[in-house]
Amino acid sequence: MHDSPSAPNVLAVRFSSIGDVLLTTPLLRAIRHRHPDSQLTVVTKAAYAQLLSDNPYLDRVIGWEPEGGTARLATELRTARYTHLLDLHESVRTRALRALVPGNWSGYPKHRIARTLLIHAKHNWYRDSRPVAERYFTAARGLDVRPDGEPPDFFLGEKARQEVDGWLESSTMGRNRVLVAVAPGAAHQTKRWPASHWHTLIDRLVCQNYDVVAVGGSADQALAESLSTHQSGRVVSAAGRFGLQGTGALLKRSAALISGDTGVMHMATGVGTPVVALFGPTVREFGFFPYTPAARVVELDLPCRPCSSKGSAQCPLGHHRCLVEVGPELVFSALSRSLS
């Protein structure tokens, strides 16, 4: 498949995090389709390698352990003679890597000044309305590729599918009713919908004859388990139970996901599951809305938004209206439209 002497040998670097890594996949897919004989290698942190490990468009995924240092990674990369080196992270660490691995590097626009002005002055200087998945294409301008408009790819291995199938079978979740996934956690407090709203929504879902599974990482376990104490036995927590692949397989088995602005949201888009996404401190201009037509974003038009690009420990104004005032009925209505 990779015999042509003129075929590109491409390296793409995106160290983290879940959503950012998955949003590189429309570009990776486009490179493979445009250059079927190319060599395509991606470097990401080992913790996120599962997001790409079963992607058929890639020849190699390098799962990098940060403790090993950038210099050791650079030593490995220098031997490969890449024709195109794509910096899809644009960080201090990738700039160090670029210095250590000479070659034809290119990056993409992060619009730091426009982002800062929007957050602090509430003035929109963005001239680039593309989502981040399409901004990444700027780094590949030498490869003659264009977005195909399709969602990200999160390919799942058979082991993860079987693990989730067995777990669902033993719990009887989704056997006789439609299964809906919820992701109540987020790395930053201001991105989290209030726990009381989650409880109200889950009551409504159970009353409407849905089964509910709460998903997330180990940091979300306590919150997810507090939701799964529902007396009906129709709400379970899978937070912290599965790795990234298993969580993806569980999302694929779900009819829809309700989530904040988190990596789980992008995992769902990558496996083709409809999403209802709750956006509070962050906004569309930053480029991280779910990259799929099978998504509904619930947000309020408030003069204090956005207050942060990644979320923060507390609302700067102390009221957190952007998510407190997004009521459970509004979210249930959006879910109903998605499922219809």
Please explain how this structure is put together.
It is a single chain. The protein is an alpha/beta fold and 340 residues long. It folds into 2 domains: 9-140, Rossmann fold (3-Layer(aba) Sandwich), CATH 3.40.50; 158-339, Rossmann fold (3-Layer(aba) Sandwich), CATH 3.40.50. It contains 13 helices and 11 strands. The chain has helices spanning 18-22, 25-34, 70-78, 92-100, 112-120, 132-135, 158-171, 195-207, 221-227, 244-253, 263-271, 321-324, 328-339; strands at residues 9-13, 39-45, 60-64, 84-87, 105-106, 178-183, 210-214, 235-237, 256-260, 275-278, 295-298. The chain has a 6-stranded parallel sheet with strand order 8-7-6-9-10-11, sandwiched between helices. Strands 3-2-1-4-5 form a 5-stranded parallel sheet, covered by helices on one side. The mean pLDDT is 96.
